[in-house]
Each structure stands twice: as C-alpha cells, then as structure tokens.
TrEMBL record:
Protein name per Swiss-Prot or TrEMBL: FprA family A-type flavoprotein
PROSITE patterns per the UniProt record, alphabetical: FLAVODOXIN (PS00201), FLAVODOXIN_LIKE (PS50902)
Gene3D superfamilies: 3.40.50.360, Ribonuclease Z/Hydroxyacylglutathione hydrolase-like
Family: In the N-terminal section; belongs to the zinc metallo-hydrolase group 3 family.
Cofactor: FMN
Length: 425
C-alpha cells in the first residue's frame, strides 16, 4: 500500500506514526501556489510538526500555520493529552511554524518552551506577548523525556538567525527545521512514497539556503557525524529512505566548484557589459586588456546581450570580483544590468570586489547608481567608477586599461593606496 492514513473514516485528522514513539501531527496545504511572495509552489506545501513520547512526558516539535491549527490540534489529540506535554520546541519562528503556538501554550500551560539563543527577541516580536516563559538553548544543550531525550544544534541563518535543529538520539531522528525541506505537498508523506520532488528540493535550496552557504557548511559539520534513520523537516517529504543522500547533496550544493580549476592564490575577475552603440563595449575590452596584465588574475569578459542571467549568477557567486559596464539611458543604467543585479539576491556577495564603468551621452548617472547598488549588496567598491562621454578617445582607452589593471591589482593586494579627492566624487 502506498497511501498513508491521515484521517479517520469520519474525516477526523489523525497523527501518522514515524516510529512507536514519534508521530507527525502537521498539516497539508496542497493549493498554495506562492510562498513568501517569491517562491512558486507547484505542488503546494506541508507544515510539518512532530510529537515524541518519552517515559516522563511528551515533546511537541514545531507547530503549523495559524489557518491549519485545527488539523494540528486534532492530530496531536489523537496521540497525546495536553497534560502530558512537558516540552515544546521551536526550531524556527517564522509564522508558518509558530501559528498554533499561542493556543498550544494555553492548552498545555505546564510545558516549557525551548528556542535558540537568537530567537528570544524574535519570539516577543512575533507573538507580541511580554510574559513568555522559555528556555534559550545552544549546541550541546539537552532535555530529558525519561527514556527519550532531545539534543539541540545551533544552525543559524538557515534561513533566519534563529534557526536550530533538534536531534533525538534514541530514535536517530533529526528534526531539521527548514534544512533539507522543500515546498512539496503529497499526502503519502515519505520520500520513498511521494512523487518526484527533486526539482522542489533543489529549487528550495537555491532560493532559501544558497545565500547562506557558509552557514550550511557549518551546520553540516554538526549533522554529518550523527547516526540517522530519518530526517524530519518542517516542509515537504519526511526523509526516511537514504537520509544521508540529502545531506550529501547539501554538501555538494554548498561546495565551490571553481576552486578545482584555479591555481593556488589565483583570483577571478568577471566583466559584464551591455552596449548600445559599441562605446561601452570598447571600454569593456580595454578594461579586460588592462586586467589581463596581472598573471594571478583570471579575467572573463561577457556581453549581457548574448546570454541568460541565471548562468551568470552561478559564475558571480564563486568569483572574487565583479565589474559592470552600462550606458546611461534616460538618466539610468539599462534594464539588463538591473536584471542581473536583482538576480544576485540569492547569493552571498559580501566583500567581493566591485567596479562600474560606462559611456554616456548627457549626464551619466548610470555608473553612480550601479555603484550604489553594489555597495547595497555588500561588495567593496574602492575604485571610483569610470565614465566616458560618447566615443572613447585613445587617451580614454588608456584610462580604461589602467582602470582594469588597478582592479586586478586590488584583487591581488598589489594596488598602492592613494588619497581620494572628494571633489572628484
């Protein structure tokens, strides 16, 4: 049988046993098509919550979105009395996981709430209650349920600052929060029973976890050594078949690929441009030639008119420096540049080198506007953007080559410091 019984014959929601002591008490949202404005959900989503029973009490791990609280409480009541609940754990405080919390705390006032250290201020901001009893925890902290226990793993920024994972060692189960989850609703629940959800798993990683790769790697260092029979995320299928496969996939997605192609200490500089009449292109080619003078910098030149944005985002994520060339039209940079910049929100650009150049006809605001956006994306922009009016002269082409050389030197640490005249800015 492929089906999982989620309701009784008369339609009452039922808990689903993951083991003798652990049950799923979540809710399904099959009709959701957009999550948090930016994520598409072709199959809807699930709000996964769990109950684990020990000899000395019951723990509830996460809740559901407020509009699905009735399903959550019905399933919870099918396996536990509220008087038995000793522990409530929130791995993540986003409303789709905390919607039923206020009512749960009313029904089980004796339960102690456990959240991460970084969740404390966020909890009060979300629930708007001043008198909340909770225990903040960090990696290594434990709570006993008698013959079952819970251990906490601090995994911040996956994908909020407050996120953590909870491990049940006696069950070899990881309640992972949003990590290893995806927006995929299937009432068969388990990864070995549901439809093909690989695209949802990869899509979720790309839009939720990708900007925080360095934190993913840190979390994996805590998770990889754990004996695991099952991973129970807060969204999507429960991973009971080959759970280590999904951990390995996160490791692959979070590991840089370009480093295998580079020489030791080699840096990478990407130059993208779009050109109306060939003037910005001439500048780009000269900047490329200038940067190529530094042997330890691998320089690449791309015309945005001839490529899709998505592959360029992958290149930029692993590069050390990003230089953008744009003409100014109607007082602004052109749309392909803004399209590329808007796509970079899914990657971590902090402390990468940034630079901007472009040809203009009237006032040339485009370069300054793009510089401001690069700084907003947390790139370093230490060299003032280069602007040329209309067709670059031979002297201006030499300036472009010098600009490229200076950017490459900045990447390698060979650039000399200089005093900036603010009158030139």
């Amino acid at each position: 049988m492929n089906s999982v019984q989620l309701e009784s014959e008369d339609g009452v929601p039922l808990a689903v046993a993951l083991s003798e002591r652990v049950h799923w008490v979540g809710a399904l949202d099959p009709n959701l098509r957009t999550f948090d404005i930016i994520l598409k959900t072709a199959n809807g989503t699930s709000y996964n919550a769990y109950v684990i029973r020990g000899s000395e009490g019951v723990a509830v791990i996460d809740t559901v979105k407020e509009g699905f609280a009735n399903d959550f409480f019905a399933r919870l009541e099918s396996v536990a009395d509220y008087s038995e609940i000793k522990v409530i754990v929130l791995n993540h405080l986003e409303p789709d996981h905390t919607g039923a919390l206020p009512e749960l705390m009313k029904r089980a006032p004796q339960a102690q709430l456990f959240i991460s250290q970084k969740a404390q201020s966020m909890l009060k901001g979300l629930l708007k209650q001043d008198e909340l009893s909770y225990t903040p925890v960090v990696t290594g902290d434990k709570v006993s349920l008698g013959d079952r226990s819970l251990e906490f793993l601090h995994t911040p920024y996956l994908h909020w600052p407050d996120t953590q994972c909870t491990y049940a060692p006696e069950e070899a189960m990881l309640f992972s929060g949003d990590v290893f989850g995806c927006h995929f609703c299937d009432n068969r629940l388990y990864n070995d029973k549901v439809g093909d959800f690989r695209f949802s798993f990869e899509y979720y990683y790309a839009h939720i976890m990708r900007p925080f790769k360095e934190y993913v790697v840190r979390a994996l260092e805590l998770i990889e050594p754990l004996p695991l029979k099952l991973i129970a995320p807060t969204h999507g299928p429960i991973l009971r078949d080959r759970p280590q496969h999904y951990i390995q996939r996160y490791r692959q997605l979070s590991s840089p690929a370009l480093h295998n192609e580079l020489k030791p200490n080699q840096k990478t500089l990407l130059i993208f441009y779009i050109s109306s009449y060939g003037n910005t292109r001439r500048m780009a080619e000269a900047i490329y030639q200038g940067a190529m003078q530094i042997e330890d910098v691998r320089v690449s030149l791309y015309d945005l008119e001839g490529g899709e944005v998505a592959p360029f985002v992958d290149l930029i994520e692993e590069a050390d420096g990003l230089v953008l060339g744009t003409p100014t039209i109607n007082g602004d940079a052109v749309k392909p540049i803004w399209d590329l910049l808007s796509s970079l929100a899914v990657v971590n650009l902090k402390n990468k080198l940034g630079g901007v150049f472009g040809s203009y006809g009237w006032t040339g605001e485009g370069v300054r506007l793009v510089e401001d956006r690069l700084r907003g994306l947390k790139l370093r922009v230490p060299i003032q953007g280069l602007r040329v009016k209309l067709i670059p002269t031979e002297d201006e082409i030499h300036e472009c080559k010098a600009f490229g050389l200076e950017l490459a030197q900045e990447l390698t640490g060979a650039r000399e410091s200089r005093v900036i005249n603010f009158a030139d800015l």
